[in-house]
Amino acid sequence: MTSRRSLDGSSVLSTDDLADYDIISDGHRSLESSIADLGNVGRIATDIHEPPPTQSARETFFTPSLSVEEIQAFVKKSIAAAGLGYREHENGSADEERTIRVYVDGKFDGFNVAHALQLRQAKLSFPLVHLMVGVYADSVCDQHESPASMPHIERCELVRHCRWVDEIIPEAPWRLDETFLKVRRIDYVAYDEGTSVDPSFDKERLKGYDLTKSLRKTIPTRRTTGLATAVVDRSRNQTPIPSRQGTMRGVPSSLKHEGRRKVVIQEAKPDQSPFMAEPLASESESEPDEPKVDEFGTGVGV
């Protein structure tokens, strides 16, 4: 039986870093393998651990309950229906035997459950997938009259922290072309079913998707329905908001005057408790009084 060294003063001051690491790991695994376990890099789809969806999620949405086998069977069937099939590559390997580079792009403004579940399907579409996600820059969105309410850097960070994503491409083009596909070594582009017939979808972006179809480089994901109206409106149908300084790039017009309304407390009736008085909204639109500031710059009565 191998004796373990106690963590005393001599071991802390020891220059044998590997020996000190063995105290934690018992030496049966390398540091690299331990770090690799923290992510999904190089992991076979069926081996990726994820918490199961709640019962309410299963009842509300359809896509969270899709198993790895169901996702891959759907992708394979869709490829076959297009008269294609799993491709043989130059090195002789097939799609089932190599790491497939799948690409998804979008604005991801107000990242929501539909985005996350699409990325999940894209990641699990083949046994081994390297998932790249392109996020449109603010200038690109503005150029195509689709300004984002969240800054580009925040949208990139939200997507980067999705568990299914392997790589972020912040300089994503609005319209895909062969040069971009070749430089990024993209095998397939994933997009939701019905995208090509969605009248609200940008026609310029559709031209890029049509190109990937002609190159046999598209795979479908099933759209997540049943989202709250507010979430859908924010991600798809929101009226563009002018850019402003700060985290959020604008304020909804319906809330512009919300802070200006004064509240007046109705006097209680003689036989009524003062705590039962109801607040009434004043019709006055005058600005509220500025808070007083003492000589030290501290607000008084705030």
From TrEMBL:
<dbReference type="GO" id="GO:0004105">
    <property type="term" value="F:choline-phosphate cytidylyltransferase activity"/>
</dbReference>
<dbReference type="InterPro" id="IPR014729">
    <property type="entry name" value="Rossmann-like_a/b/a_fold"/>
</dbReference>
<dbReference type="InterPro" id="IPR045049">
    <property type="entry name" value="Pcy1-like"/>
</dbReference>
<dbReference type="GO" id="GO:0005635">
    <property type="term" value="C:nuclear envelope"/>
</dbReference>
<dbReference type="GO" id="GO:0031210">
    <property type="term" value="F:phosphatidylcholine binding"/>
</dbReference>
<feature type="compositionally biased region" description="Polar residues">
    <location>
        <begin position="237"/>
        <end position="246"/>
    </location>
</feature>
<feature type="domain" description="Cytidyltransferase-like">
    <location>
        <begin position="103"/>
        <end position="199"/>
    </location>
</feature>
<feature type="region of interest" description="Disordered">
    <location>
        <begin position="237"/>
        <end position="302"/>
    </location>
</feature>
<dbReference type="Pfam" id="PF01467">
    <property type="entry name" value="CTP_transf_like"/>
</dbReference>
<dbReference type="InterPro" id="IPR004821">
    <property type="entry name" value="Cyt_trans-like"/>
</dbReference>
<protein>
    <recommendedName>
        <fullName>choline-phosphate cytidylyltransferase</fullName>
        <ecNumber>2.7.7.15</ecNumber>
    </recommendedName>
</protein>
